[in-house]
Amino acid sequence: MRAIHRVASVLAFAVYTLLFVEVFIRIFDPQTIEPRYITGAPWGVRHNIPGAIYVHTTPESTAHFSINQQGMRDPRNFAFAKPPGLCRVEVYGDSFFMGYEVEREQGYAAQLEQKLKERGYTVEVLNLSVSGFGQAEMLKTYEAFGRRFGPDLVVVSWHDTDVDDNVRAQLYKVQGKNLVAYKPTYLPMVSTQDWLSRHWLYTEIADHSHAYAFFREALGARAKTLLASVRKQEAAGPEDTEAAAEAPSTRKPEQAALELSEAIWNKFQDEVMADQAQMVVVEIPKRIDRSTYVSMLAKLPPTFWGHFNVVSPLAEFQRMAAGRPEIYYEKGGARHFTPLGNSVAASLTADEIARSGQLSRCREPRVAQQDRHPRP
Amino acid sequence: MLFNSFIFAVYMVLFAPVFLLARKNVTARNALLIVASYIFYGWWDWRFLVLVAISTAVDYAAAIGASGKPVERADLLKSGGFMAASTLASIALAQRDWWIIPAVFVAIAIYGVVAILIERGAMTHRRARWLAVSLITNLSILGFFKYFNFFAHNVQAGLGLLGLHPDFVLIHIILPVGLSFYTFQAISRTIDSYRGVFDPQRSIVNYAAYHAFFPQLVAGPIERARHLMPQFERPLPITRDMVETGILWFAWGLWKKMAVADTLAPIANNVFNKPMGHSAGEYAAACLAFTFQIYCDFSGYSDMARGLARCLGFDLMVNFRIPYLSTSPSEFWRRWHISLSSWLRDYVYIPLGGNRGGAFNTYRNLFLTMLIGGLWHGASWTFVAWGAIHGAIQVVFKLLDLDGFLARSKGAARALSHVGAWALTFFVVVLAWIMFRASDFATAATVARGTFGFDGWTWDNFLPIFERIAPLFAVDTLLYMSERSKIAMPKSFVLRYNVALCLVMATIVFSAVQSQQFIYFDF
To answer: Do B247 and B298 meet the contact criterion of CB atoms below 8 Å apart?
Structure first.
């Protein structure tokens, strides 16, 4: 009886402590509640859980997520066979293109489809973005899954976190000057999350608890930074070891990480072109403050982007900054694009597609003609 | 190893159960404390354990000799053996600078010869000679590692003014963490033994554990042997009340360091690292931010040290008593870094003559003591100037007899004069901190001049500081009042548990993204 009393007391204290922590964080540091419904795809990288329905809440917005049976944030399911006369655009990105903090219709992919249709294209946009993706995971998804939909155009984001994401994944490595496949899978914490997600208590906590969100973000960020640092060192080769003394590495970890990203970009473009499709790179500028943005393109050498079709909303963001509109969420959220930010990026992408003549076979001739002879 | 690091948490998880097992046997407990303290210190740089060991071994024998007791062969063997064993272990762990081993063995041989010569000498000189051995050893270590380059640089500059340009070699010297603290603590024990106010015992294990006691080894408080040493010579009870209050003190110190000091640091750094081109409000905010940064950094460390020691059954002295509520500079020094100011009083001010010998000598002694106190903080003229400012304002306050005026005032005038005296003291202390924080006189002048303006006095500049110091003052004042009124702190476990939870959560939620090293580690 005494033992039961003790166990009950300890349990009561544990529950009380958890409630205390929850209330404390809700009062003093309310969190962004962004549960991640991620699982492992058969091709070895993360994938949105098919059929998942969930909500993200931040101090500035509420976003409802409904994932289709193919792991895309879309109410439609797409047949692999492309309907005749229709062009397909596939969007690959991380949480920005996944549409975090905005409703689906306000997200980049939905707005791109809308703007292309407004410009006379018969098109559907498939959003294959997954939060946390770098180009390594995007490429894996494209190779194993995305290309089966027969895309005509592939839009890929380039974001501040991608260099580290690519290194962390270890799906590829640079050997000599070539990109080679390295590890077959990159599924960080996925099996744990799969197991936890089977329990209603976990999903309730993940969907509603500010304390859980706080500690997950804090620990996750530290773990990611540590992992990136270790793997950058691995990518650079041995340093300060006996092996290094025999064959000293000339590459710094940061340089090795950039070289890996370059090689992945090149391979991605080669794969897309091998499928008779085209690629557009959309950079997501880094927001310093409401009037200052930094280009992410500068991370790689200026000559590197020469053979890519690149869209940068940087200049437009800077131009708009004078009016101080909200392009990114700012107050406590995860600082993703607002509907306006998505709209600007989607408009510029649609303009670039129209300018470059990509997807022209799916465009009404009348509208295309208008574009070639714009009204003054 | 830092108190606010993950590795320290792991270290304590491993250390605590072993300590609990060993705590009832004094020798086993102290031996464990030596090993634990040396790991704690050596984690930063194993090589500098050699200095801790030299200081320990020399002061072990020197205090015995200075007290008038004979230093026996067994004492010398213990002393030399401790130095040799510690050196071998330290360098083996460091895996570099092997030359230190023969160098220390030569030093041990010289030390042995000196010890034998002193012991064979006349009894009248023996005590003083042992005291000299302690002073020379500790001050040489301190002087070389902390002040060598400073003096070499200034001698070079001085000779340059005379048209001489000798080619001095400035050595790249790393300042060992906590050097000023443990050398001062060692010196005080030997002086107290010489004065006959402390009776040193012959257990080197007990003394080495005291000398290297890890909660206070690297940033104090600078303990007195007659207060702390007896605690190392008997088993200490560890009660639930001690552990609970110890955890609370530690959590409070951790909050001060991580949630206040580290969050205010960027505000101060922003101005002091780039002193040009700020508004007066920004300069003033930076000065205010540094004022509370250094208080929370240092007093936070002291609180953590006291809390940790209390959990282990030891009682360390109080080092801060809300100094920014002082109404005169002398009161400030009775409340700020109490262990250092009382050390300077006992071992510098009083030997210089104290307040004996008339007003002029009193002021001179006071000023010189503050000057030395300034230099203790670092090898730079800005620290000397900071000490000089504090010395000068104490002299001015004494000349004007402001303390006497405050004591004599009554009624409403008393309240008013106390508020005025507090404001004046706080203002002067904040201005003096400019000299302390600035890397050079030009920066200090720019910042000091910059604060006297009318632009930039916006709420935005000061709100982040007030947000932090409001709860700080509330809790500090409550603790101080309860200590002063001898009100026992509540012993309710539920209450203490909630307070600890609040502190831990406030530390986690409000701590700075970028943690800063403890400022006083450099002193």
So the answer is: no
List, for residues B144-189, the tens digit of each pLDDT value: 888 887 777 777 777 777 777 766 666 677 778 888 899 999 999 9
Instruction: Determine the Cα–Cα distance for residues A107 and A343; give it in Å rounded to an integer.
Output: 8
B228: Cβ–Cβ under 8 A, 6 or more apart, which residues? B210, B213, B314, B315, B316
Residue pair A123/A359 in contact (Cβ under 8 Å)? The answer is yes
Q: CA B327, CA B475: separation in Å to the nearest integer? A: 20
To the nearest whole Å, the CA of B502 is away from the closest chain A CA by: 8
First vs last Cα of chain B: how many Å apart?
16
Question: How close A232 gets to chain B, by Cα (Å)?
Answer: 22
CB atoms within 10 A of CB B74: 10
For residues B426 and B335, is the Cβ–Cβ distance under 8 A? no
Report the residue count for chain B.
523
Using the predicted structure, report yes or no on whether residue A376 has a pLDDT greater than 50: no
pLDDT of the residue at A333? 66
Active site residue B153: no
For A307-334, what is each residue's pLDDT tens digit?
A: 899 999 999 998 888 777 888 887 766 7
Q: Top-level CATH class of A34-372?
A: alpha beta
Q: What is the ipTM of this complex?
A: 0.71
Is the CB of B509 inside 8 Å of chain A's CB atoms?
yes
CA-based nearest residue to B211, from B459, B470, B30? B30
Backbone angles phi, psi at A126, to 5 degrees: -100, 125
pTM across the whole model: 0.77
Distance of CA B33 to the CA centre of its chain: 20
Minimum Cα–Cα distance from A25: chain B residue: B509
In whole angstroms, give the CA distance from residue A240 to residue A236: 12
* Residue A374 pLDDT > 50: no
Contact B501 A214 (CB under 8 A): no
Decide if pLDDT at B514 tops 70.
no
B378 CA to centre of own chain: 12
Query: For residue B44, what are its two tokens?
Result: 């930063």
Structure-block tokens of residue B40: 């704690």
Residue B66: C-alpha distances to residues B59, B126, B223, B471 (Å): 10, 7, 19, 48
CA of B325: how far to CAs of B332, B419, B477, B505, in Å? 8, 10, 9, 28
